[in-house]
């Protein structure tokens, strides 16, 4: 992930891959974020030139969508579902607990660069709320204790256990 | 003996992977099936035995040794034994058309799909003219299952009638509503059904390219859809020459990027074009000027999935289910604070109470139910006096509520309905596309006004102001985002007014 060293990120291979795809900007942004963890400001001119768009248009798209990050994120992204189904099962308390124990607010990264906390509106796991997503894995019925366990598992080298 | 343990999101979220590993450790290689949608029983382990396909659930990895032991002697002696899965009342009493195959086998196994009548509808369609297919869809009475309930056949006719060198089929798989997972279950448990429905739609209207616009919050569905598409292409169910017919249909999955408004069809099209998801004014209808300005069918996952059933079993079979103008089945999704949540497919007409108390068996917390929100974040909060309303589009519209995509979210008596009303406004602030002032700014004001009411500041005037604001949003918004955010707000005010007194939640 650290290869993203700010101003030098080379995304030309991705621009080439998506330049002639109809409506290719979103897939391109997803690909850049997949590789670098976020969409660095420094890549905007190359994206704009490659897709024949103005920089303002590219900015406009990046800022419209919740998914696209313009700053580096932590090693792990933890998303807490805030939808009504999860609220009915105590996700507001879970949110408060997560923020307090991690010492960050939404859209922030812990000081050690390990975890970025994000809200998400619905993981489609609404019959077994509250739900949390950690990278690409989704967890059901997450209360405070379960959340702490998941975070502890992240800290250990064994990865997250289910 | 064949063992099955699901690979759908909910089963995985409840630990299905470690159950699979425990089975492997014991020398058993399970089939990774889809879910039946009885999420309260997940992870649901199924075993094909002499007495039929029996189930155990919810299981965890540490139950595996004792289950394997019980299978050697007397399966029914195990605490988690459920008997024959298809006889579990929750499932047996459903009317499954769209979900008939869900959970039976490996969702991306083509042979399995075909053995269970898969691609029969497509083969039938290949022998028909576009007009004949569209007529079948009209005759079935199928209405869009994404929320707006617009007749599918009429939309298709419009696209068929257009002359254009390129047309598109776009599947709306943005499933943004809280409490909904019906689209996900189709994509994760029976993805070929959607692929088949889209190919039939292409044949019907003369479109050769399809896109599935999938929300990025569904990584499991994404993976399974891509595998299924690749296999369907390899077997000529997609591609340049479908089953040797000379007819073409190509399909691609595109990921959304976390914007609720992109579920609205014109916003979705903008997003597919690589733009900000700004809602377009209609007309022009997407059916006439849709994706890249070309005639486009935009349908929900469930609408397109139903097409496979209709072409396979006939329009009349489908249309025989339901009540009034709501034909066919409704995919009810029971969610939130509920003991037995899951997917319930039934003909239209069952009451909310029957679903929540019968299937759901009340709240997960064991406390009384206080409010039920049907139809996602823009749906009204219903108090007990309205729970006998039948699930039918028109019956719900009559009480200023909506069925929408069929999501039902249950709240127990600890819910603070003023906080929920505030959340509805907050959600609109976060998700508005920004085109209309009443939606973009009105929602910001809405949050402030609700805060003032709850704080007892100039209460009477602020209540009047809130209603005025709701009127403005309802009348001055281009789409239902701004236009219907007032529904949850007003229903909370009307039925749970004691929560807005600032003295904490009242009893009502
Ligand atoms: C704010 C908003 C959000 C919507 N979200 C979805 C969605 O997530 N999925 C969906 O299928 N339709 C959604 N719709 C409805 C679509 O605009 C459109 O009616 C639907 O895709 C048409 O397909 P159907 O006729 O098969 O239902 C939404 C509409 C609005 C106004
Ligand atoms: S109502 Fe809201 S979301 Fe809909 S078009 Fe207007 S601003 Fe956009």
**Number of domains in the coordinates of chain A?**
2
Structural class of chain B: alpha/beta
Q: How would a crystallographer describe the biggest sheet of chain B? A: 5 strands, mixed
Strand content of chain B: 5-15%
Radius of gyration of chain B: 23 Å
Largest interface: A-B, 44 and 62 residues
Categorize the overall geometry of chain A: elongated
Mean of all residue-level pLDDT scores of chain B: 96
Radius of gyration of chain A: 18 Å
Bound molecules: flavin mononucleotide, iron/sulfur cluster
Low-confidence stretches of chain B: none
% residues in beta strands of chain A: 5-15%
- How many DSSP E strands of chain A? 5
Number of strands of chain B: 15
CATH architecture of the largest domain in chain A: 3-Layer(aba) Sandwich
CATH superfamily of the largest domain in chain A: Glutaredoxin
- Largest sheet report of chain A: 5 strands, mixed
Biggest β-sheet: strands ordered side by side in the sheet of chain A:
2-3-1-4-5
Task: Summarize the helix and strand pattern of chain A as letters.
Answer: HHHHEHHEEEEH
Give the spatial strand order of the biggest sheet of chain B.
12-11-15-13-14
Summarize the structure in words:
The complex is a heterodimer of chains A (162) and B (508). Chain A folds into two domains: 62 residues; 82 residues, Glutaredoxin. Helices cover 40% and strands 12% of the residues of chain A. Chain A contains seven helices and five strands; from the N terminus they run ααααβααββββα. In chain A, strands 2-3-1-4-5 form a five-stranded mixed beta sheet, covered by helices on one side. The relative contact order of chain A is 0.12. Chain B has four domains: 91 residues, 3-Layer(aba) Sandwich (Glutaredoxin); 210 residues, NADH-ubiquinone oxidoreductase 51kDa subunit (Rossmann fold), CATH 3.40.50.11540; 91 residues, Ubiquitin-like (UB roll) (Roll); 84 residues, Up-down Bundle (de novo design (two linked rop proteins)), CATH 1.20.1440.230. Chain B is built from 22 helices and 15 strands. In chain B, a hairpin with a 6-residue loop joins β13 and β14. The longest helix of chain B has 18 residues. The interface between A and B is large, with 44 and 62 residues. Bound molecules: flavin mononucleotide and iron/sulfur cluster (SF4). Iron/sulfur cluster binds next to α18 and α21 of chain B.
